[in-house]
Each structure stands twice: as C-alpha cells, then as structure tokens.
Design goal:
The protein has 165 residues and is α+β, with helices and mostly antiparallel strands. It is 27% helix and 23% strand. Bound molecules: tetrahydrodeoxyuridine. The site of tetrahydrodeoxyuridine has 13 residues, from α2.
Amino acid sequence: MIRTNNIAFSYREYEKTEELESDTMELIIAARKAALTAYAPYSKFKVGASVRLTSGIIITGANVENAAFPCGICAERSVLSNSISNYPEDKPIALAIVSMTEDGLTNDFPSPCGSCRQVISEEESRTGNKIKIILSGKNKTLIIDGIGSLLPLQFNRENLKINLP
Ligand code: THU
C-alpha cells in the first residue's frame, strides 16, 4: 500500500521588533553584536548567534571563515561549541540567529544551513530539551519551537540504537 503523508509545522512571525518579548529581544541584540565580530572576509556575510542557557547565561558566536573554504564554521555551530565546551551541564533553551551584509542587517530572516540544523538537533538530543529558534531579520522575525520543524525525519541517536548516558 502506498500512502502519501504530509508534514506541517507552525511558527510565529513578528513584523515589528516591539511585538517581541523582552528576553527574545535581548537574545537578538546579543546575536547582532556577535555578528559584528564575524570573520567573513570571503563572503562578507556576517552571521551572529546567541544562546540562552537554563541558568540565564547568554553565550554568543559568529561565523569564522578560512581561505580553505570548508574549514570555515557557521555562527550556530560556533556558539554551540562554545556553550557545550564551557557549560556542559547547562542546557540551551533558545537560540537567536541574525545575518548582516555590508549594508547592515538583512531584511529577510536568516535560515540555518543543513549542517547547523543537524548540530542543533544533536544538542536537543544531548540535553533532552527543545531549543526555541529565533530567526531575526530587519523586517521579520520567526520563532520556531524546536529543530524538529526545520529538520523533519531527522537522523539522531534514536536511529543508532546505542545506549548513551
Ligand atoms: N553561515 C552561517 O554562519 N550560518 C548559516 O546557517 C549559513 C551560513 C555563514 C557561513 C559563511 O561564513 C557565510 O555565512 C556565507 O555562507
């Protein structure tokens, strides 16, 4: 028997930053500051990411490029490497992402690449906590509750059937 299934997801869209809650805005501002520190001489596309941990600590990261292009790292993986290495017991509850060109913040919201989605998925599995994902452009901010919506049918530790701590 052949079945056609559909996967739908909902997200919240905000057109004005004044409509955002203050803790969300705080995280977006931290990501904007981080974007300014990006090392992106090749693409000139600066991405900033910030993570709020359950303890309330905010960690930031930015993309870091390399003349050997594949050696570069995205802002999302940069911030998660930072938080996992320095606060392994603390759990990310929200992740904000912003992007900038030479003209400033992009109008459109940034969208995490596939590798970053996979890494966010691993962090949700590691901690057992969903991460609120905030994609913030100049004119629009999207809020998505958990990576599952951005990475349906994801491959994670469940597929490996290995006993992990
Ligand atoms: N980039 C990120 O930092 N995050 C993403 O999710 C997409 C792309 C960076 C990688 C590279 O330094 C630049 O943006 C252009 O692709």
